[in-house]
Amino acid sequence: MTLLQERHICISICQISYIINNMKTTIIYLLILVICCCPGCKNSSDTERYQNKRNNILFVKEYIKEIEIEDVLIGQFARLYTINNYLLISDGRSIDKLIHIFNKNNYNYVTSIIDRGQGANEIASIGFIGINEANNKIYVTDYGKQTIFDLCMDSVITNPRYIPQIKMTLNERQFPDNYQYINDTLLIGRIVEPTGNSGYNHTVAKIKTNTGEIKLMKYKHPKIEKKRICFAASTEHNAYVECYHYHDLMTFYDLDGNFKYNIYGKKWDNKTTNKFGYYEKVLFCNDKIIVSYGNGKDRFSNSENGYPTQLLIFSIDGTYIQTLETEYSILDFCYDKDNNRIIMSLDENIQFAYLSLDKIIS
Fold first, then answer.
1. Mean pLDDT in the chain?
2. Which residues pair with 88 in a beta bridge?
3. Any idea what the Cα angle at residue 201 is, between residues 223 and 225, rounded to 5°?
4. Within 10 Å of residue 252's Cβ, how many Cβ atoms?
């Protein structure tokens, strides 16, 4: 064999080796592509989503209308609810009637109900009010009596001596402080779960009102030590969402508690502190999710009161849509689905106000 022939053979071998190596690389890339595109496979982007830009901001102060309430004196830290044709304002610090009822269409005063006290038709220490709109009932939590009471709206409005029925007795060590009606024997709620002598965590759970059984949802974010959340649930969308008070984080689930994904805002971190406020309250509003958002405001600053001024609008799957900047400090809000309005309790010169969403959100 000549030297020239040996060189040709060597070159051919090198070329074949190069082709084989390239084919291996191509096959590996194809396998990776197939794995990533496989419908049954999940990568980190499916469950860990980041929203670093929420800059579609609309200033809406000029659209906010005051609700003038002259017939009844209501304290600063009132809580708002709607049921059918009524707006309910709960005033836990009142020394007289604890729940004030208004027509939600025109905000005319209807009546006030429920005295403070230990009597059969009284509430010792009022807490959250659950809404059963289908049956025109409200569920009133009484922390003093460790009981959730069942009240028929028609009866309690017309009969001053109406005695509510007991819906559920609370467990002192593990009890709901916020909940939503699912059916006549099932609530989904936020549980206060003690973690020591003085510590606690929030956990969402299914609550059977006929037995008192509480079934905690399993998922816990691995990087958060102290869990403080608001939550909202929707039977229509088979979903609930947790929004963290002191972390820029939302977590989505189905109603069985199966974890779907986390959504992180641009100020996300896992520090254990309650200094900075993010999500204060969240609601499902038809095909949107609306939250009051503090944007990391210093809750203990002397220059501001720490309450959120923004309402963030998301689609049902958590896609960011818009920020409504109210320029008012929002203590609480509820949604009037029939009039497509947000009704707010404010820490401002005006105490109550509403914002129509008809021309703001498509």
1. 89
2. 81, 101
3. 20
4. 20
Torsional sign, CA 349, 354, 358, 362: positive
Please give the structure tokens belonging to residue 301.
């600053």
Is residue 21 very low, low, confident or very high in pLDDT (cuts 50, 70, 90)?
A: low
φ, ψ for residue 28, nearest 5 deg: -65, -45
Q: What is the token pair recorded at 297?
A: 């405001």
The span from the CA of 299 to the CA of 194, in Å, is 24
- pTM of the full structure: 0.86
- The region, left, alpha or beta by phi > 0 then psi within -120 to 50, assigned to residue 145 is alpha
> Rounded CA gap, 139 and 168, in Å?
9
Q: How many residues does the chain have?
A: 362
Among residues 340, 289, 292, 361, the alpha carbon closest in space to that of 319 is found at 289
Kindly report which listed range (70-79, 204-213, 282-291) carries the lowest average pLDDT score. 70-79
User: Widest CA span of the chain, in angstroms?
Assistant: 116
Residues 267-274 have a mean pLDDT of 95
Average pLDDT over residues 92-101: 93
Q: What is the dihedral of CA 355, 346, 297, 304, to 10 degrees?
A: 130
Question: Under 8 Å CB-to-CB from 159, ≥6 apart: which residues?
Answer: none
pLDDT at 197: 76
Residue 213 · residue 205 · CB < 8 Å: no
Among 152, 154, 104, 109, which residue's Cα sits nearest to residue 338?
A: 104
CB 62, CB 328: distance < 8 Å: no
Strands 57-59 and 48-51: unpaired
SS (H, E, C) 172-226: CCEEEEEEEEEECCEEEEEEEEECCCCCEEEEEEEEECCCCCEEECCCCCCCCCC
